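From the shared-data thread, chain only:
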Amino acid sequence: MQEREAYITFINEFKTVSPTITNQQRIGLLQRAVQQHGLSVDEASEILNAAGMIVGEMDNFFEVLGISIEQIHELEDQTIVNIVKAAHDKHYRTSLAAGARIRPDGKTEEQWRMLLNHARDTLIDTNKRAEHIAMLRKDNQDLEAVTLPLSDLTDFDTTRQGLSYYTIPDDVEIPDGMVYIPEGEFQMGSDDEEANDDEQPVHTVYLDAFLMDRYPVTNAEFKAFLNANIQTLRPEWLKESNKKTYFVKELLRYWHNGMFPYGKDDHPIIGVSWYAAMIYAEWSGKRLPTEAEWEKAARGGLVGKKYPWGDSTDSDTFESTYEVESTVPVGLSNVNGYGLYDISGNVWEWCLDAYSAMFYAIYPQQNPISDINSVEWVASNYHRVNSPRVLRGGPWGTESKGVRVSHRFSSNPIDTLPTFGFRCVKGIP
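Structure, as tokens:
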């Protein structure tokens, strides 16, 4: 029942971006139901029908960008790419200037920009462009009465990720519970009226692609880690320092007899020191995100917005997710464009970086980390770290200013406040 409700929640969120779907999208949504939620094709079809997710006409990406197929006929591939990118940039800038209006076609400007990105990514790829042209020439097929065996269900990026449109390389394997964050530039920081000095200046950062946990690490996941490492929880560097009392004793003060509170298996783990988060990340074959990775992921592809979903706050959302007196189960907050949940709210999330109020003024442009050492060094030598570390995301019980994607916080790596949690990332070779 829980998986069915999770799938229904996903479909309702997907519907806000795409109230009509293509044949290929319907197949992808059915695949998600079968592979990720354990539902049958019939059950998934029933949910799609109940949500009104009808198969509509496929978007013509040439029309979206204001380009005709005849215009690019017989042109060299690089020339086509240049035309597509120029058209995309023109429409994207116009959309940004339009603010939060609702378009005549019923889409919000944010939804329209997602479609613009999808159109660009499809048409600049030679093979995908050819496939799109071929699909435009086909008659739509009615899938309502089709029974699809699992072997016939093809993949679709939107169902693998969330609500953002972009291309995932075919050779990238995405583990269960993680999402793909694409490479590229983004604008880090904020210059809005609520921004603190340490959030400025806004600056351009380039990041390589990486994978990130869809949710913060939960009590159940951390318990599995403890069970697997019962004999090795206190390596020598912990025994030889006062850090040992903060790893298990202080963390587990929120539990009873070594067990998290009843009914909170799907709540994020709280009271986690930076050291404990690093040990868990190392055990899981991952690491903590850099501050830049966290902010890019939190923005979900949106540019210059305060929150992972845009600029406005919905009172119901804040009352149920942020203005509360404790954590809530992961996955209840708004999903962002990369398919991440709880990226703002629920708990503060530890980052790899040392905190520096002046870091934005002297930042490296590519894959930055605020530390005198590299990402690899910090991930491998965390037991030698003593300087304050960055936290992001804003916890339960906070006001809207604290959950802005650019808001920065810091604490000593030994600290274990009841609002401290984390999620992990993994680099792509």
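The longest helix spans residues 77-97.
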